[in-house]
Every structure is written in C-alpha cells, then in structure tokens.
Design goal:
This protein is of the alpha/beta class. It is built from eight helices and eight strands. It has a single domain, classed as Rossmann fold. An eight-stranded mixed sheet has the order 3-2-1-4-5-8-6-7.
C-alpha cells in the first residue's frame, strides 16, 4: 500500500494536492496515508499486515536480485554497492531492511507525512536512506538510474498499470532488476483479500483495494514485456493460519511477486 494512484487525466493543470495532473496520484490516497503516517512502525496497528508479510517479500526481493546478477547470497550485506529505489516507500518498511542488506536506498512517495516518518525512523536507527517526496515520473525524467527498483502493493491502485510499469523500467540501468508485488484478480483473491481481509478480519480498512484493478500474473508479465523487461521470477506469498506467518509459495492466486530484468546495454531489440 502506498500513496500512488492515478489522477484524472481529463483535467490539465494541477490537482488539489498541488501535484501535476500527469502524475500517478490520487489526492484522497495521499491524504489517507498522510493521516496514518505516525502509525507506520506500529506492528500491531493499521499496517500490521505489511509488517507480517515483510520477511517473505524481502526474501523474494533479495533472492531475485542475487540470482539474476550472480551475487553471493551468503553474508550480512549481499546487496552492498547496489543503488536501489523503493517506489511508494511509505514509512520505510521495505527501504530499511534493504538498506541493512547493504543497498544504497532511495525511497520515493507522494505523502510528505509518510516521508517525514520514514526519515525520522531511519535516522533513529542509524540508517542513511535518501527519502524524497517525488513521483516516479519525476524521477524517470531526471535521468537518475538505479541497479534495482521495488514497487510493492502499488500497481493495483493505478488504472494504467502498463504505463506505470513502463515508467518504473525507465529508472533502471541496463541489466537492472524490477520487483513488483500485487494481488491476482481471482475469485479466491476476492474472497480473501476483499471480503476476508477488509470486511471480516479488518486487517486493512474497507475500500483499500478495488478487485477489478487486480492483475493476474499473465497480465503483469505482458506489462513487463511491453516495458522492455524480461520476466525472470514469479512467486506467491500465502498466509499460514496455523503459524500466523506469511511464506513464499507457488500459489499465486492471491498475493504474488514478479521480478524482471532490463536487457544489458547492446542487447536491447
């Protein structure tokens, strides 16, 4: 979950938040996450599901990067020397562990309050992370490029995910890796992620997700390919009621992640 959502492109100029109308942002989403900014690091609060699913997501990100780039997985800092951007970084729940794995992390989000909370928490933990109130479009236009990018629980909030993935791919260096997490549009995901998580268990506020915007793995893979990325890894993340833990699995019917690699320089068609 992040503050990124598509603006109404029919109205030129700026939206009420002051963001340019061609930026993927919904002012209501920004306001909602801004109001929750002080609760990002409360493991038992509004973002409890993100804290619980964090280790499984981090394992997928780490393994995708080290396997694609041939980096040794052992050691405390397997991502040392890598420049990585967290798109829709929120309070830094993913940026911080990636920094602890050795990556030089930039986190971008459009909720200024979330960015402030992320900065404060990182500083308190002695971490140097470059947090910015910035859109992915602005970052891509700046010409700054990264070895890897992560985009977690963002694409299901934008009505034009193909354009969003294409823009994210632009910030990668040749050979760079993009890792995306989202939810698949299946009856199972409607039952678990909408009815179960929002209405029954109250894990997330009602209205957090719109089922018709969920993407199947095949659809997301097509967006990767259209953006010039080569899909290299797909995996599901499932909840185990018996242990209360989220684990990596083959089941991609609800939560899943996908990694793609940008071709090396000289190999792009």
């Amino acid at each position: 979950m992040s503050a990124f959502r598509q603006a109404d492109m029919s109205n030129p100029g700026t939206d009420p938040s002051g963001a340019a109308a061609n930026v993927n942002v919904d002012p209501d989403e920004v306001a909602r996450f801004a109001a929750l900014a002080e609760r990002w690091w409360d493991a038992h609060g509004a973002f409890k599901p993100l804290h619980q699913i964090g280790p499984a997501r981090l394992a997928f990100i780490r393994d995708s990067i080290v396997e694609a780039l041939g980096i040794p997985r052992s050691g405390l800092h397997p991502l040392k020397g890598m420049r990585l951007v967290d798109i829709g970084s929120g309070g830094g729940l993913v940026s911080e562990p990636l920094a602890r794995l050795g990556a030089t992390v930039t986190g971008i989000d459009l909720a200024a309050e979330s960015v402030a909370a992320a900065r404060a928490h990182a500083e308190a933990g002695g971490l140097s992370i470059d947090y910015r109130v910035q859109s992915i479009e602005e970052l891509a236009a700046s010409g700054e490029r990264f070895d890897a990018a992560v985009c977690l629980e963002v694409v299901e909030h934008v009505p034009d995910p193909a354009a969003f993935i294409a823009t994210a791919a632009r910030v990668l260096e040749p050979g760079g890796i993009l890792v995306v997490s989202t939810l698949s549009r299946t009856l199972k995901s409607y039952a678990l992620a909408i009815i179960g998580a929002e209405h029954v268990l109250r894990w997330v506020p009602r209205g957090t997700h719109q089922w018709d915007r969920f993407l199947t793995p095949d659809e997301l893979e097509k967006h990767f390919v259209a953006a010039g990325l080569v899909p290299i890894r797909t995996g599901g993340i499932v909840y185990q009621p018996s242990t209360g833990r989220w684990v990596n699995a083959d089941d991609t019917d609800v939560n899943y992640m996908m990694a793609g690699r940008k071709p090396d320089a000289g190999t792009e068609s």
